[in-house]
Amino acid sequence: MKLIPNVICLVISLAYSGVISALGSTESISDELVKVDKPNILLIVADDLGFSDLGAFGGEIETPNLDALATSGVRLTNFYATPSCSPTRSMLLTGQDNHPAGMGAMAEALQTFSILKGKPGYEGYLKPETTTIAEVLSNAGYRTLMSGKWHLGSQPNQQPTEHGFDRAFALMQGGADHFGAGQNGGPALQPATYTENGRPAEFPVGSYSSDVYAERLIDYLNLEDKSDKSDKPDQPFFAYLAFTAPHWPLQAPAELIEKYKDRYNAGPEALRSARFERMKRLGLIDSAVPISSLVVLDDWQKLSEQQRKVESRNMEIYAAMVDSLDQNVGRVLDQLRVSGEYDNTVIIFMSDNGAEGIGARPLIGRTSNSTPPQHKAAVLAAINAGNLDLSKMGTGESFITYGSQWAQAAMAPFRRSKGDTEEGGVRVPAFISGPAIKGQRIISSALSVRDVMPTVLDITHTAYSDVSEAPVTAAGVISMPSAKSWKPILDGSLESVRSDTDAIAWELHLKRGIRVGDWKAVYGKDTGDRSSPSSWKLYNLSDDIAESNDVSAENSQVLERLVAAWGAYAKQNGVFVPGPP
Residue ranges of the Sulfatase N-terminal domain (predicted)? Predict the structure, then answer.
């Protein structure tokens, strides 16, 4: 583990990278929080969860444990991640932009975007010199625990234990079969890589991923092996629970799939409309807000009966995955209650990006280039058959996704989905709950995944000052993206920690975006055709969160300012900007 300079354990507010100190260096979050000097932190991340999947965010899927946490705490309806998984995780754990952290591109994407290979900031793994929240808290006396998806590097020197975690059971890649099919070196299949505490580990084949990750974290919380000197049994914990659900392949326990049978027979457009109306009733969005147009690939009523059954089953399986995730969160919460730690635990929940809208992926993760052709053919034939067999769909014999239309339903009322810098790709469900947090509120101000680290260090009264990040402005008007503690939001003194001149910006796989106040500019292609030209578009989110009306023509000066600010952000963070498209 790296030694962290300038870490001081004091009961004071945080001075984080020259940013948080401006919020006040001596005042406590509240009188109650002073009594909870070192609360536990439970950070839960869902994988590809849609904005409206949880009941507390307008969904119909049964998620009572997460709903109870969300409604008792602070729901964040304007919380931004990045367009895809590992870049979000790098920002979450470091408080930095994904480029300085080494995740300007996902490792897998470097094969497609070869122009990015070898560029600084596009290493595809978390840089070893980057300081994580786990390292800071570990040096402050916290037990640091992790269970689930890592996806920030798979080499021995890139393990979670090299980045501050005392204990970690981790999937190195971005996803895997949820029941373990083809894992642990199975013949003719591409194995997923698991490690525990930096050493090779096996996934218990036949078990379900969400069950396994929750059970392993509960084991760590129980401290069954007290002989392990890495443990600090009398100290608070920072626990990172990173589920791989509901990321493809869509797989879930059979009894949960059966629970949702026939609930989605009306199709994705009906689901999207129903969720949109519930979101209005819950006060999550303004009742006057329009919904974005659904990109209809196939008219639901024109599909054959068998096609509708297959598509409905896809969504039934997805719902079962979310249900299972919620049940496993409940198991962890029950353990905290039994141990007496629940009332001393701050819980943060989020999705890593928008819902996944990609189509069928029968080949991903199940065969490798070294697989003998005859074995590969047999494996793929079996998978393709399982993908269309209602009795096998959702089991380890299938490998399916739920496609663009269900993803658009999950991201209502926003446009597009995972991989895009439009709202549907980057605005995700999130909430924070726990002691000394003024709860039962909905906060609609713009927040960033980068804010989690300074917020947690503020909550835990852990002072950290290492890499200075001086405030930077573009054209003397727009403040560059920075991490900000939610301290004033948690104590109820403010509704926002960003002004109308503070920017939040993105770049991933050559797509760009920037938000300043209610204005948002997005750079990309109109269609999925990679040969089509890219261009900037401008939206006013105050009356168009669906990003359906490009107002750049009548607001050219606004767009110019935002594009200039994005350029300053790119320069500040080492973003690679190729020539004109």
Answer: 39-460
